[in-house]
Design goal:
The chain is mainly alpha-helical. The protein has 13 helices and 6 strands. Strand 1 and strand 2 (about 80-85) form a beta hairpin.
Length: about 300
């Protein structure tokens, strides 16, 4: 009897190696169900973190612009996006044909007048004598009298004025929607989202990427989940829940379910195991007693699943 038992349990060296390799392969297959989804999720999360960081910086800049107090004292003026205290004029000799923008501003001339002078020079205009400066649009008689002793026109610069000035290339402002305009949050692409005041490329991509992962938004408050303040954007968006892309829980795999932001791996596994043991799922009620699910989970998941 003992010899018979030994004969049926005896394996050659090559057979033992084959059995070991087979056991390793079985272990890899079993572990891949747990490991691969986590690795894929990790790669996705790193990319999303970069998008999140850029969008948060844009959002902070947007919020600070909204909270800025626009009621300033007359001693302050607006320049290059900020309010600064108006500096005292510095009167120095200058040639209106070659004086730079900063020199003209330091003389006490307003920024809009300086730009008009530079545009006049860029088009070939020039000042041949001091009295020509009096024709500058908006320049008062008192201002002209104050600057007259400091005007020093050199004749050799009269013909070179336009060559010495290189007009600054101004960035074309992006078109923005006016207040009262609304867009469909579930259909707008990044180009349309950027037309909303305060939304740049980073925030637009963040919204679109999160919308794709969700399958669509069913309420504006979901923007808070990607660190955007929905209360500030509420008036710009409309939401049509019927355009949400739903997951069929009777066909989706663990990986497909786990890819959704609201469904973790253990919840996905519970759904697939229940389906395998008890058949077709017709509602989420059977999972009420499962420790993997909370009441808040059911509230968030319900709009994104179907039972076809």
């Amino acid at each position: 009897m003992l010899s018979f038992f030994k004969s049926i349990t005896f394996f050659t060296r090559s057979q033992k190696r084959g059995i070991i390799i087979l056991l390793i392969l079985i272990g890899v297959v079993l572990c891949s169900e747990y490991i691969i989804p986590e690795l894929l999720k990790k790669d996705t999360s790193e990319k999303e973190q970069l998008e999140q960081t850029k969008a948060e910086k844009e959002c902070e800049k947007f919020l600070s612009s909204l909270e800025r107090d626009t009621k300033h004292h007359k001693s302050y003026y607006y320049s290059y996006g900020i309010y600064t205290k108006k500096p005292l004029p510095i009167l120095v000799p200058f040639d209106p044909n070659t004086a730079t923008e900063s020199v003209l501003c330091r003389l006490g001339l307003p920024e809009w007048m300086v730009k008009n002078i530079l545009k006049y020079r860029a088009k070939g205009g020039r000042f041949h004598k001091a009295s020509d400066f009096k024709r500058v649009y908006g320049l008062t008689a008192d201002e002209y009298s104050r600057l007259l002793p400091y005007i020093n026109i050199k004749q050799d610069t009269v013909h070179k004025a336009t060559q010495l000035y290189k007009p600054r290339i101004e960035k074309i402002k992006e078109f923005k929607y006016s207040l009262g305009t609304t867009v469909n949050l579930n259909l707008a692409d990044t180009t349309e989202l950027k037309k909303i005041p305060g939304i740049g490329s980073g925030i637009a991509r963040l919204i679109v990427n999160y919308r794709q992962r969700l399958g669509g938004f069913y309420q504006i408050e979901q923007l808070d989940e990607i660190h955007l303040q929905s209360r500030l954007l509420r008036n710009w968006f409309t939401i049509h829940p019927e355009s949400i892309r739903r997951i069929n829980v009777n066909q989706a795999s663990i990986g497909r379910l786990n890819a959704h932001p609201y469904i973790n791996f253990y919840q996905a596994k519970a759904i697939v195991e229940y389906r395998r043991k008890k058949g077709k799922i017709t509602s989420l009620k059977p999972f009420i007693l499962y420790e993997e699910f909370t009441d808040n989970d059911f509230k968030r998941i319900t709009p994104y699943v179907c039972f076809e």
